[in-house]
Automatic annotation (TrEMBL):
Superkingdom classification of source: Bacteria
Pfam family, one: Glyoxal_oxid_N
Protein name: Galactose oxidase early set domain-containing protein
Keywords per UniProt: Signal
First and last residue of the signal peptide: 1-29
InterPro entries associated with the record: Gal_Oxase/kelch_b-propeller, Gal_Oxidase_central_sf, Glyoxal_oxidase_N, GO-like_E_set, Ig-like_fold, Ig_E-set
Annotated Glyoxal oxidase N-terminal domain residues: 249-576
């Protein structure tokens, strides 16, 4: 990982060359850019409506030159030395000069250029009516060109609150770029929405279908492979009986024909970590070495083993071991293809404080002394999201009980080996099994957290959401809109949620239309399923309730995007130890709007950073994006991301401008979607992003810009070296004095359950726990007053306790 770019300083400096014309050159009716050819002089030795901009340590020159594409003037920007930063000629950020734009519309930008450096791109800024001028995005990377070359690109839809934009060409490498004849036109109005192909209810809210064939394994890990199939990993499936028998399972599901193929699985990968490597193979780390002891004195144990699953051969092969055991570890791929992992439980049931680094170059886990260590305990399945400057954002979403000390969210800098707390996360100790997602597009660097609870204290799960803009100099969470409420089954049928009731075990899925589906969940620790789904729109910051999955989707459930644009949901493992093998498929409303656009050809499926890649489509599209396929478990997929691909459109030929920043889109296989003006996506094509590192946070900071640099939170460096974090054996929120290891009697019952034997036994009966053996002589929950070794018998319930 690379150290972050330091604070950007906007510099406006003198220009040596003057301009001759003085009559203002207005924008034409078809071109929204004023003085597009630099023919009219302005102040500060710059053309009218243009200004010098840039930052950092570099030597530069701005010149107006006679070597023009048309007319008599062009603008030349030269960097002769660069340590960091960029220079750009930018449309002046003023009401007089910056083009007016309309929210939700797109604009075609064009210019002519010559360039002696590949380190240059079209950069946009936007004026927010509340927050003022701010960086928006980088669009097209310009290739070197000795002669005049035309560059065109289509903007994303203009975000809410934006009334003007300014743009120009950034130069962030030594060399020169000469530009002329800028154009900007609003994209024509889309055709009317097609006629709905479903019922009115389906077209508004989508449709769930339960598949006729069940998932044959108790899978809590779901990975969408680069051939469109789905790897479903169960291991022992949270079944102590299967663990003792050595029965470890996985399956590969084929959405094309609805079939499952069971895969020999060498180890108990129950609650392992997993991530897709850049070549499409799946790295699976750690898993379950042992279940808790019957008396509750020993907790779960994580082994050190690590495996790679090959989608081609559909087999597992072993790698070298990790340095520690990690039951419930994080797994985040970095911009260079390495993988970093934190947290989880060691082989002795204590918490691992070891940071692990998988080397893409060496294809192995690095030795401990080669990996920077803060000796921090990040908990279980901590959500660690790669930022576009190479640092990691710990969002505050985690599993089991309380959050880490401090504010519950932080920015982790591997190079500096520091952790900086980030404020604003609401009720940070009730975000157990919440979901966190990097919102579309990844270029915006906004993260959303949803819901959560606490399996130790077991309150009603909450409706909280929080949003953070990681581009801000000192980012802080702000409260988002509350999750919509649905119905909850408390054991006597579904009733409407009330008050502040929300859900934990939330699934959040990025959709190709740029929205987020949140679905599934439960009100309490492995109990009381909540039936509610909604679509979150990052552009408006609002939720739209849609059809709910008819199946319970609580603990050990997952939901994920398929290449055809539908969403698949699997699993549910309530406290009584049972498993839901039914599979649900959600058809979003965008698939009920008539015919879909189609990508009829992809010229090249091997993409490099900074590329322009051409595709053909069968009809006009409004946007295209790369979506990284899911690798999800326990509400957690920190690698999920939606990367916008700015367009250059020529009829049915569309050139896609690929980001130059591997920290924004880590190397690997992606689903490429084309989306029309009505939000209807194509079926995805698979493309592989890799190649030379076109830029990094150190070497091409024009694409990183100033954000999250002057953090004001508490900063900590490496702590004292230690071997582990002490963790209680009841970390999973289950009282092991009762039943078997895969049965979870809550250590703390839901608030509505009185602390009496009868009330607790009635709740257990309503949730289908059946007969429960008492392990040992202790009865902390008073479920066996008569002491016969069986909890909640008839005599127990009649006892006055």
């Amino acid at each position: 990982m690379r150290s972050r770019t330091r604070t950007a300083l906007l510099a406006v400096m003198g220009l040596t060359g003057g301009l001759l014309l003085t009559t203002p050159q207005p924008a034409s009716a078809a071109n929204l850019v004023k003085n597009p050819g630099f023919e009219t002089a302005g102040g500060d030795d710059m053309p009218y409506c243009w200004k010098k901009s840039g930052w950092g340590d570099n030597d530069f020159a701005f010149e107006t030159v006679a070597d023009a594409h048309s007319g008599s003037k062009a603008m030349k920007v030269t960097l002769t030395r660069r340590t960091e930063g960029d220079r750009k000629a930018l449309i002046t950020e003023s009401a007089e000069c910056a083009p007016v734009v309309t929210v939700g519309k797109q604009y075609d930008l064009g210019l002519w250029y010559k360039s002696t450096t590949p380190d240059t791109s079209i950069t946009l800024f936007r004026h927010d009516t509340t927050a003022g001028w701010q960086y928006w995005t980088d669009l097209k990377t310009l290739q070197t060109a000795a002669g005049w070359t035309e560059a065109t690109v289509r903007t994303p839809e203009v975000p809410a609150g934006t009334d003007r934009i300014a743009w120009g060409v950034s130069v962030y490498g030594t060399g020169s770029v000469t530009t002329d004849d800028y154009t900007m036109d609003q994209v024509a109005e889309p055709v009317p929405d097609p006629v709905c192909t479903g019922t009115a209810e389906e077209c508004a809210n989508g449709r769930w279908d339960v598949l006729p064939t069940q998932n044959p394994v108790r899978s809590m890990h779901s990975v969408v492979l680069n051939n469109g199939k789905v790897l479903l990993i169960a291991g022992s499936g949270n079944s102590e009986e299967m663990f003792e028998a050595g029965t470890f399972t996985s399956a590969v599901y084929d959405p094309e024909n609805g079939t499952y193929k069971q895969i020999p699985t060498p180890k108990d990968m129950f609650c392992a970590g997993h991530v897709q490597l850049k070549d499409g193979r799946v790295l699976v780390m750690s898993g379950n070495k042992g279940y808790p002891s019957a008396d509750g004195t020993i907790g779960y144990q994580g082994f050190k083993d690590s495996y790679i699953f090959d989608p081609v051969t559909e087999t597992y092969s072993r790698t070298n071991d990790m340095n520690d055991g990690h039951w419930y570890p994080s797994a985040t791929i970095l911009g260079n293809g390495d993988v970093i992992s934190f947290g989880g439980l060691k082989e002795d049931s204590t918490g691992s404080v070891t940071a692990e680094l998988w080397s893409d170059a060496e294809q192995k886990w690095l030795e401990l002394w080669k990996v920077n260590q803060t000796w921090s305990y990040w908990g279980l399945y901590p959500s660690m999201i790669l930022m576009q400057d190479g640092r990691l954002f710990y969002s505050g979403s985690h599993v089991f009980g309380n959050n880490i000390p401090g504010t519950g969210a932080a920015i982790y800098d591997y190079d500096a080996n520091t952790v900086t707390q980030v404020p604003g996360l609401q009720r940070k100790d009730e975000r157990d099994q919440s979901a966190s997602v990097l919102l579309p597009p990844a270029q915006d660097q906004k993260v959303l957290t949803l819901g959560g609870g606490n399996i130790d204290s077991n309150p009603d799960a909450n409706r909280l959401t929080d949003v953070i803009d990681l581009k801000q100099p000192n980012p802080s969470y702000v409260a988002g809109p509350p999750l919509p409420q649905g119905t909850v089954d408390l054991g006597a049928g579904k009733i409407a949620q009330t008050g502040d009731q929300g859900k934990m075990y939330v699934s959040a899925v990025l959709l190709p239309d740029g929205k987020v589906l949140e679905t599934g969940g439960a009100l309490h620790n492995r109990a009381d399923p909540v039936y509610e789904s909604s679509l979150y729109d990052p552009a408006t910051g609002t939720f739209d309730p849609v059809a709910a999955d008819p199946e319970a989707r609580g603990y050990h459930s997952s939901a994920f995007l398929l290449p055809d644009g539908r969403v698949m949901a699997t699993g549910d493992n309530p406290g009584n130890g049972s498993w839901n093998h039914d599979v649900s498929i959600y058809t979003p409303p965008y698939l009920l709007k008539g015919e879909r656009p189609a990508i009829t050809s992809v010229i090249d499926t091997e993409w490099s950073y900074g590329d322009t890649q051409r595709i053909t489509v069968d009809r006009p599209i409004a946007k295209a994006e790369l979506i990284r396929p899911a690798a999800v478990t326990h509400s957690s997929d920190p690698n999920q991301r939606f990367v916008d691909l700015p367009l250059s459109v020529d009829g049915n030929n569309v050139d896609l401008n690929v980001t130059s920043n591997p920290d924004l889109a880590p190397p690997g296989w992606y689903m490429l979607f084309a989306v029309d003006a009505g939000g209807v996506p194509s079926v995805a094509k698979w493309v592989h992003l890799d190649g030379p590192r076109a830029l990094s946070a150190k070497d091409a900071s024009a694409h990183v810009h100033a954000f999250a640099d002057d953090l004001q939170g508490k900063v900590t460096g490496p702590g004292k070296k230690r071997s582990a974090q002490q963790v209680g054996p009841a970390v999973s929120g289950c009282d092991r004095h009762y039943g078997s290891a895969n049965v979870c009697v809550p250590t703390d019952f839901p608030p509505a359950v009185k602390a009496t034997t009868k009330a607790r036994c009635d709740w257990l009966k309503a949730n289908d726990y059946g007969r429960l053996k008492v392990n040992g002589r202790d009865d902390p929950l008073r479920l066996d007053p008569n002491g016969d070794g069986v909890a909640c018998g008839k005599a127990d319930v009649k006892a006055k306790r």
